[in-house]
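Handout, section B. The chain below has 253 residues.
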Amino acid sequence: MAKVFENQVVIVTGAGQGIGLEICSDLAMNGARVILNDIEESLAREAADKVNKKHGICLPMHGDASDPVFIQSMVDEAVRSFGRLDIAVANAGITLFGDFLEYAHEDLMKVVGLNLGGSFFLAQSAARQMKQQGEGGSILFMSSVTGHQAHKNLAAYGMTKAALEMLAKNLVIELSQYKINVNCVAPGATKTERTMQDETYDNTWKNITPMGRPAMPADIAAAVSFLVSPSARHVTGQTLVVDGGWTSVSPNP
């Protein structure tokens, strides 16, 4: 029985751990050949090894997912190694908390450069390849509940996430003619290696999330896998919020 992503080729950025790694594992388990990116070489290699040992074919590529030249090199590597590119997941992002009145220009440029610039140019490079292939494809942006609800000290981050959702809508006009769909997943609080450094994180979000727990990376990966699968080919320009109901009530942590 053929797997959902059999013979599909995928790029996932920012995937050395957490949500990105889970996305790679989920896609590979279902037949995809995956290029796994992380800015840290050791993380990329270790993560790809984990996927290869458990699930299938995963090629690590370390580099800066905000750099258009590197982004194009990932697309070129997908074609060189696997012959095509079918799915691009712009998961790489950076969160820099800070009071709006004191927020530094350098910090804003970092957040915008990766969260927006990296996502924009991955979509552009991937879409060019998909257009050339003539068989369509899927692009997925990683948004956030902070693109829907204000969150203290995250003005810059929330702004970029809201912008990604608008980018997905706009690309409906640009890319539907090539049978490329573009969507977003907006995670809420999620237990990852980074968030669990805060010892209060789990209990805090258990108490304020209607479903009684923060998300796990597998919850987010399942949403991503649906939106880039054949089952969602007629879904485009949409955002799927995965937050256990938090945005319906929105209490601050």
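Note. Residues 4 and 30 are 6 Å apart (CA to CA). Compare this with the example in section A.
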